[in-house]
Design goal:
Spore Coat Polysaccharide Biosynthesis Protein SpsA, Chain A; 26% strand; alpha/beta; 8 helices; globular; eleven-stranded mixed beta sheet
Length: 305
């Protein structure tokens, strides 16, 4: 059975100023999502599931239909809304912020029954990551509790336009994830070294450190774990009192690792990651895609139009 790609595309792109998931950055109008799906198809994925919002569903579905990809992959859509909660739970008063990435993953429970990978819609991951996660997922079909995270070298995820926040992957001697440590204000300084800021001080961090860019691999049993842990999250004081508390994938991973219910293999990826957060990032991303096309990594038109 071919693995499935779950694309988290429900974000409204508030900082970017538009639906950046649909912004044409390639020479034939390709969005970043197109390059991810192209790489996924080449790696052997058989289905793509988009997590979107009802507010832009019609426009999104018209663009990212199965026909767009030449029928090479199945396409399905699921929806993430604030009121998508387990029975007996309601949206807390004043809550407007989405519930987070793992809540988005949970929306696909009824349409994914095979090993699957999870990515952000507005991040460029590179074909190496898709090959690595596809190989892993094919190897764990029919198993439970064996998951993976594609780790990118920190040096390949830095921005030329300012500091970034990254989740540093800590692993054990077997290459299994022990925790993801969030670091903020990471940037390369004038001395050529990379630092993160904490309590007003700079601390050096190895540029070869592996970081999480929200590229995960799961088997379907992950949905049941997510449901159980989400209920615990909703019952917590943080979820009840903080209208911005979010149910992130690393939160669930941390619970599962500490309880010994699952393991996460960290897959090293040497690809150059880049993403679009602000409008100012757009020319940089367009140029990087152009370079990859000139090198023959991608055709000028992904889907032959």
């Amino acid at each position: 059975m071919k693995p499935t790609l779950l694309v988290l595309a429900a974000g409204m792109g508030s900082r970017y100023g538009s639906l950046k998931q649909m912004d044409g950055l390639g020479p034939s109008g390709e969005a970043i999502i197109d390059y991810s799906i192209y790489d996924a198809i080449q790696a052997g994925f058989g289905k793509v599931v988009f997590v979107i919002r009802h507010s832009f569903a019609e426009e999104f579905r018209q663009i990212f239909s199965r026909e767009r990809f030449g029928g090479q992959v199945e396409v399905e859509f699921v929806y993430q809304e604030l009121d998508c909660l387990p029975a007996g739970y309601t949206v807390p008063e004043g809550r407007q912020k989405p519930w987070g990435t793992n809540h988005a993953v949970m929306m696909a429970r009824d349409v994914i029954h095979e090993p699957f990978a999870v990515i952000n819609s507005d991040d460029f991951y590179g074909r190496e990551g898709f090959r690595a996660i596809a190989d892993f997922l094919r190897g764990v079909e029919g198993q439970a509790g064996r998951y993976a995270l594609v780790g990118y070298y920190l040096k390949n995820t830095l921005s030329d336009f300012g500091s970034v926040s990254r989740g540093i992957c800590e692993t054990d001697g077997d290459g299994l994830l022990t925790e993801v440590v969030e670091r903020t204000s990471i940037q390369r300084k004038d001395d050529g070294k990379v630092y993160f800021a904490e309590n007003g001080e700079d601390h050096a961090v190895p540029e070869e450190s592996l970081v999480s860019m929200n590229f995960w691999g799961f088997t379907p049993d992950y949905f049941a774990w997510s449901d159980e842990i989400f209920r615990r999250f909703l019952d917590s004081d943080a979820a009840k009192t903080n209208p911005k508390a979010e149910f992130f994938i690393p939160y669930v991973a941390d619970v599962l690792i500490k309880r010994g219910d699952a393991s996460f293999r960290v897959l090293n990826c040497d690809a150059k990651w880049f993403g679009v957060t602000y409008k100012e990032d757009r020319p940089f991303v367009v140029a990087k895609i152009g370079e990859l096309i000139e090198r023959g990594v991608y055709p000028r038109s992904l889907w032959g139009r």
